[in-house]
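HOLO CASE FILE
Compound: adenosine monophosphate
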Amino acid sequence: MRVVLMGPPGAGKGTQAFLIAGMLGVPHISTGDIFRANVTQGSPLGIEAKRYMDAGEYVPDGVTNAMVRDRLSRDDCHAGFLLDGYPRTVEQVGELSAMLSSSAERLDHVLELTVDLDEVVSRLVMRAAEQGRSDDTEDVIRRRLEVYFEQTAPLTALYEAQGLLVRVDGLGTIADVTARIVAALGIEQ
Ligand code: AMP
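Model generated. Tokens follow.
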């Protein structure tokens, strides 16, 4: 199964993506995690990405698309994948569809986790305290949400028009939300 998981920062995408990818037996591909791993390693990609991440901005499409193209071309993605945090721009949507159609593949579902804005802000502030992520300061949190609502939220309409979009309420316990996703995607357990 090929699934894209969308939703604002703090919606719980990472947690759910990890669990759902495990159930589906497909790799969980988080562009944010790949960028963070590169930042930790101090690789050229990490040095480039960090400037944008720390400001709450998106890493340029050219850099992000090349990274995803490389990741999806690996053998473990043949049977499917769960993309977490990609695509996030119109250009990335086009690039992903080009990557898939070049190998005669298509997405099965685009899952949008919906959450209340106040809830998201309080989750992000809590995560900042727990994990100390350098992009979880209040100003950067605000900017990341703005960028999401300007650039990424409108993309769901593109997937809705293709009949791929499934919306799931992201409010509640981790187990509640997982159960909703399992039902919405028709995952057999
Ligand atoms: P995340 O962990 O998914 O919230 O991503 C953390 C940060 O990594 C984002 O705020 C962006 O700076 C960068 N990033 C992750 N995914 C993308 C993407 N698809 N396009 C551009 N930047 C991204």
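CASE NOTES: The mean pLDDT is 93. Residues 9, 31-32, 35, 52-53, 58-59, 64, 85-86, 88, 92, 135, 144 surround adenosine monophosphate (CB under 6 Å).
CLOSED: yes
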